Amino acid sequence: MKKTLISLFGAAILLGSSMSAQASAELVKAKNCMACHAVEKKLIGPSYKDVAAKYSTDKDAVAKLTKKVREGGVGAWGQIPMPANPQVSAEEAGTIVKWILSQK
User: Fold this and answer.
1) Chunked in runs of 10, what are the mean pLDDT values of the chain (104 residues)?
2) Which domains are delineated in the chain?
3) Which residues 6+ apart lie within 8 Å of 49 measured at CB?
């Protein structure tokens, strides 16, 4: 009985994290991030895998990139500016950034 409960609990955790990742990918699409970015290749902006690699050791990456999503910026990846996205809430931006940083 104990093993069954532990197995069910583990499955629920895995299912929840899978659904969270899917929801985050859907949020990226819904907020139109894919118009300029792709997971594996550079479009107008860098690929999400390149962003994840660049910020992999930066402990402040989530805060920095959440701010950049909302306020925009230029210079980190060249001279093409990233426009501000004020329609993306801080919570949504944080979710998006965490998903981006998980792309490896």
Assistant:
1) 48 46 86 96 97 98 98 95 96 97 94
2) 2-101 (1.10.760.10)
3) 39, 40, 103, 104
d(CA 51, CA 100): 7
* N-term to C-term CA, the chain: 38
pLDDT of the residue at 24: 87
Distance CA 16, CA 10 (A): 10
Ordered DSSP codes for 24-55:
HHHHHHHTTGGGT--SSS-SSS--HHHHHHHT
Taken in order 39, 85, 56, 12, is the CA torsion positive or negative? Answer: negative
Confidence (pLDDT) at 104: 86
Among 99, 85, 78, smallest CA distance to 26 is for 99
